Amino acid sequence: MARRFRDHEDGPTDADIERFSGVTQDCPSCGTTLYDDVDVCWNCGHALGSERRQPLPRWVWITAGVLLALALGGVLIRW
């Protein structure tokens, strides 16, 4: 990369210019090349800049299903 002439010290360094000069990034979910100013991947819908959430464990879904069935059963018996 060619070195830039700077007449004052307030500008970015050559290392900063090199580091921030890329205009694309890869989606961490599917690997699609995206522009660096997008918030959501157009290919898979992954929200960029967010942490990937872990799915809820199976026991949570089973417990929620049992509680919902008990609640609905109580409502239907009274009806």
List keywords for this structure.
mainly alpha; 2 helices
How would you portray this structure in words?
β1 and β2 form a beta hairpin. The protein starts with 13 loop residues before the first helix and ends with a helix. The longest helix is centred in the C-terminal third of the chain and has 21 residues, at 58-78. It is built from 2 helices and 2 strands; from the N terminus they run αββα. The chain is mainly alpha-helical and 79 residues long.
Largest sheet: 2 strands, antiparallel
Order of strands in the sheet with the most strands? 1-2
Mean pLDDT: 79
N- to C-terminal distance: 78 Å
Q: Residue share in helices? A: 25-40%
Question: Order of SSEs, N→C?
Answer: HEEH
- Uncertain parts: none
Shape: rod-shaped
* Proportion of strand residues: 5-15%
Count of all domains: 1
Radius of gyration: 26 Å
Total beta-strand segments: 2
By DSSP (H or I, 4+ residues per run), the number of helices equals: 2
Summarize this structure briefly.
The protein is built from 2 helices and 2 strands.
Topology:
Blueprint (H helix, E strand, L loop, with lengths): L13 H6 L4 E3 L6 E3 L22 H21 L1
Antiparallel strand pairs: 1-2
